[in-house]
Design brief:
One of its GO terms (molecular function) is L-amino acid efflux transmembrane transporter activity. This protein has four helices and no strands. The chain is mainly α. α1 packs across α2, α1 runs antiparallel to α4 and α3 packs across α4.
Length: 150
Amino acid sequence: MSKKGPFNIRNAAADTFAMVVFCFITGMFIEILISGMTFEQSLASRTLSIPVNIAIAWPYGVFRDFMLRQGARISPSKFMKNIADLVAYVTFQSPAYAMILLVVGATPEQIITAVSSNVVVSCVMGVFYGYFLDACRKAFKVPGYYTPQA
């Protein structure tokens, strides 16, 4: 987790890349295989989600960092970091996901199924996304996430 500081373009770029890639892949999986949406509905949803994910990626990263700091105040353990990642992911992503599905014409039943499934799957996805985001931040050389080579 990086230290709180001024806006960092590398951080925003890493957060955006991670959000777009991760949500496209996992969203399509959930929508088609679990929620019963057609490939076309899912592709429309994933396409619509790209600008949404671009818009929310950096704010989510800031929110996640805040949640990680709050979790670390309770316990510095890896378990608490995973719980904070999970809570951050579910509470931030579920409303945005429901709105995307509504816009692309998913039925109320499909929306409830997809969002509910996403919440359940997020027990793993939120933590996995946290690791993926950290890896992206390292790859983008975000200060606090990588060690410069001497």
